[in-house]
Design goal:
about 20% strand, 15 helices, 18 strands, 7-stranded mixed β-sheet, L-fucose Isomerase, Chain A, domain 3, alpha/beta, 2 domains, about 500 residues, 5-stranded parallel β-sheet, single chain, Rossmann fold
């Protein structure tokens, strides 16, 4: 066997993102190549001139690969199908390592986990490795060397705790499954950012008894344009009266403007109209990438819909997943039902501190303002400011918050392996940061986005086949296991300790 390892560099479809990340990635790749050479192998970067920024470019780049070892390097957020479809073209004997940058600045780990989910869904075996400090070769040289020599790298296994299921949990799960049957899910737009997070109409019916309706984003835009300005402005005023802060300015290139917020509240009412017209029980909205090139993001809208306290509220949350993530939406709906209607958090697994056992759940949108302090009576602690121009061309804000409601939380996710659905879940405890801690943590990590810090009962980065774990306050792990039994699908719990052990 030739001791050459090919290195493939995919990233984003937006030129500004690729231009911003590339100088950092070049230095990281240089160190990675040193580690490979020290292991007695020769690195061959397939696209040294820059990131592949489409499936087409990815296909063309992978055609250059002939080695039996391939490393896919994730320097930041990466469109998953820039990886999955190109890798599918490689020979069966080509072993693949997904290696992600874990620095807080850019979501390389998020991109890796999204791509890993797609690879898993189509039954393509990959290993994964995360690196924070590329200059510290000793921190990752063993993982890289093991992959090169054996074709695989696995994190050390940890024994999971037993999750007993009571009759009460089984009855609760049975009720939730009955409630799901006959529901209607509305998806606005096709899959977002080339992500492998769609659930087919057939699988929605087969597994959940839920009908899936699809809508074009143009319909939503045209519906929003018809909403009266005064109605949207009244909704914005409602949010401010309840304690939400809007960090407004006049330059739309740099700051959130009132016009952006007014349009976002028009989208809020347009989605409620869509809900009433088609009898929708929960929704997913694409937002990225097409929408945000022309309109303010829908993130503020979706976060508000996930809240009980909102304009013209019926007192209930209306589960709304961003990025047209069907798997996230149905997981959120399940957690909502299990928790008796409480808000459910939409998250990205952005960063983690292994020494502290601290996980940072950070996503651009759809987190309800409720999570700021756990109040259904106030929106205090939540704010909205213009989202990062690099990602959001037309601006718009989100429901920003540093989650300060303490307590046990349960994360869950419906995922696929070999095109078969399964349910994974676990628990954790919210780490409530001081203002100083929050400022320090967000110095290099999108302060304009909601942040939820958790001490988890497992190392989920080793096993999770999604970048989007959904989270609700409370312990519903046994209920979820019972639901998986009801659905006759596998259940996976990675917890190796309990929330009480973390607290102690």
């Amino acid at each position: 066997m030739s001791k050459t390892v090919d290195i493939y560099l995919p990233l984003d479809a937006r030129p500004i993102c690729n231009q911003t990340v590339w100088p950092v990635a070049e230095k990281q790749i240089s160190h990675l190549c040193e580690v490979i050479r020290d292991a007695g192998w020769e690195p061959n970067v397939l696209n040294p001139e820059g990131f592949a920024s489409s499936v087409y470019e990815g296909m063309q780049t992978i055609e250059k690969s002939s080695a039996e070892r391939l490393i896919v390097f994730f320097a930041g957020w990466t469109y998953p199908d820039f990886v999955v479809s190109p890798l599918w073209q490689t020979p069966e004997n080509c072993k693949k390592l997904l290696l992600g940058s874990l620095i807080p600045d850019f979501p390389g780990a998020v991109g890796l986990m999204a791509a890993a989910a797609g690879c898993s869904q189509v039954g393509m075996e990959t290993s994964r490795c995360f690196v924070e400090d590329f200059e510290q070769h000793d921190a990752y040289s063993e993982a890289v060397s093991t992959f090169l020599e054996t074709g695989r790298y696995d994190y050390p296994e940890q024994k999971s705790v037993e999750i007993p299921v009571s009759q009460e949990s089984r009855e609760k799960a049975k009720l939730v499954r009955e409630q799901l049957s006959g529901m209607i899910y509305g998806a606005v737009g096709p899959r977002s950012m080339e992500m492998w997070n769609k659930i087919s109409d057939a699988d929605f019916l087969q597994y959940f008894g839920i009908a899936r309706l699809g809508f074009d984003g143009l319909r939503l835009a045209k519906m929003a344009e018809k909403i009266d300005d005064a109605k949207a402005e009244k909704a914005m005023q409602f949010l401010m009266d309840k304690g939400m802060e809007f960090k407004l300015g006049s330059d739309p290139e740099k700051v959130l403007t009132k016009d952006m917020v007014i349009f976002q509240m028009k989208v809020y009412y347009a989605l409620l109209e869509l809900k009433e017209e088609f009898g929708l029980d929960f929704i997913g909205v694409q937002d990225q990438l097409d929408w945000i090139q022309h309109y303010p993001a829908t993130d503020l809208t979706l976060g508000i819909l996930n809240n009980k306290l909102r304009p013209d509220s019926d007192g209930n949350t209306f589960v709304s997943a961003t990025e047209a993530d069907d798997g996230a939406a149905v997981t959120m709906q399940v957690l909502k039902l299990l928790s008796g209607g409480e808000p459910v958090g939409f998250n990205d697994l952005r960063y983690w501190d292994s020494k502290e056992g601290l996980y940072w759940f950070v996503n651009s949108g759809a987190l309800a303002p409720y999570f700021a302090h756990g109040s259904h009576e106030s929106l205090e602690g939540a704010w909205s400011e213009r989202q990062t121009p690099m990602y959001f061309k037309a601006g718009g804000g989100t429901c920003s918050a540093a989650v300060k409601k303490p307590g046990v939380a349960t994360w869950a996710r419906f995922s696929y392996r070999n095109n078969k659905m399964y349910l994974c879940a676990g628990r954790g405890v919210t780490d409530v940061p001081t203002e100083e801690q929050w400022l320090e943590r967000t110095e290099r990590c999108n302060r304009d986005w909601p942040q939820w810090y958790l001490r988890l009962c497992s190392k989920i980065e080793q096993n999770l086949n999604s970048n989007h774990p959904m989270v609700v306050f409370g312990d519903y792990l046994a209920d979820l296991k019972a639901l998986a039994e009801q659905m006759d699908i596998p259940f996976e719990c990675y917890d190796y300790c309990t929330p009480s052990e973390i607290k102690s």
